[in-house]
Amino acid sequence: MDLRASPLDAARIVADATIFRLKKREMGNLVTSTTLAFALGLPLLDVGHRLVFGAVLNAFVYLVNDLFDVEIDVRAEGRDVARTRFLAEHVASGWLGAVGLLAIAAAVAALHGKGLLVVLAANTVVIVLYSRWLKRHPGVDILAMATWGTTMALVGCPLDHRVGLRLVGLLALLCMVTEGVQVIRDAETDARAGLRTTAVVFGVGLTAATTRVLIVASAAYTTLYLHAFLGPVLLVGLLWPLTPATASRTWDLLRGLFGATWLGLLAYLRVVGHLRPLLP
Fold first, then answer.
1. Angle at alpha carbon of residue 225, lines to 27 and 25, rounded to 5°
2. Last-in-domain residue among 115, 141, 157
3. According to the model, what pLDDT value does residue 3 have?
4. What is the distance, to the nearest Å, from the Cα of residue 134 to the centroid of all Cα atoms in its chain?
5. Rounded to an integer, what distance in angstroms lies between the CA atom of residue 89 and that of residue 80?
6. Domain-terminating residue out of 101, 136, 157
7. Which of 63-77, 142-156, 214-228, 256-270 has the lowest mean pLDDT?
8. From CA 99, how far away is CA 86, in angstroms rounded?
9. Contacts of residue 265, Cβ cutoff 8 Å, sequence gap at least 6
10. Alpha-helix residue ranges (DSSP H) falling in the chain
11. Looking at residue 62, which CATH number applies to its domain?
């Protein structure tokens, strides 16, 4: 392991981590936060500013997660071996890259205002706690994802916008659903690595049942607080199987369903000017 931090190695690690996550389609929150900002009618310059901040923030949080998990990932099957091994051998450079991204995010946020600085601080705390401790505790891993989903979604929403915050609440619920699917998908490899996730400790069956309850909760929340007719669409997610063998496919299907519903909500808000919840 090279304990010296090299700017060139740091740049390579940042690029590798970002490209890897993009290939895995794990930066979808950047799309949701940007479309949210646009649907809320924020000025285009503001939307663009939030987009740049969100891109840097995504690179930062995913790199931090990789740094905390590097010892596990380097031994895991099916990983990007060359990328993970390089990170394991240049951890100091990886942390240099993370600090650099944090500094850039802070500068972009400061140019915008205190709202994005609050979002950056919250995300930094959440990703460190999640990567270091919370993701390894059953039950807490799924709840922690709701917090992470909320803080990332706030990139696209002023902190005092009532309708925007309601939409952010939906994203928090949907993040718990996708986290449930992910821990089911990774149950076997996590068990071999000694990780105590919800699926490992409580079993795939109970985790799948909990994930389905969260789908119902997401549909109910959308119906009551966002749109009475679009909410029930989310119940389609109950039709797909949730086992380690099918979880990857179901994860893609759910993300497509959630994305279509999200865009439907935002399009309605943008065109009509308000949502149509069952409750005021």
1. 10
2. 157
3. 66
4. 15
5. 14
6. 157
7. 63-77
8. 18
9. 167, 170, 222, 226, 227, 230, 275
10. 7-23, 28-39, 44-73, 81-89, 91-112, 114-132, 140-153, 162-185, 187-192, 198-202, 204-225, 247-272
11. 1.10.357.140
165, amino acid identity: L
Q: Using CA atoms, how far apart are residues 59 and 138, in angstroms rounded to an integer? A: 26
**CA atoms within 13 Å, Cβ hemisphere of 267:** 7
Q: What is the pTM for the complete model shown?
A: 0.90
Please answer whether residues 218 and 234 qualify as being in contact, where contact means their C-beta atoms are separated by less than 8 angstroms: yes
- Cα–Cα distance measured from residue 122 to residue 147, given in angstroms and rounded to the nearest whole number: 9
With contact defined as beta carbons under 8 Å apart, do 210 and 180 qualify?
yes
Buried b (16+ CB within 10 A) or exposed e, 92-109: ebbbbbbebbbebbbebb
Q: What is the span of the domain harbouring residue 72?
A: 8-157
Answer whether residue 5 shows pLDDT above 80. yes
Question: What is the tens place of the pLDDT at every residue in 27-65?
Answer: 889 999 999 999 999 999 999 999 999 999 999 999 999
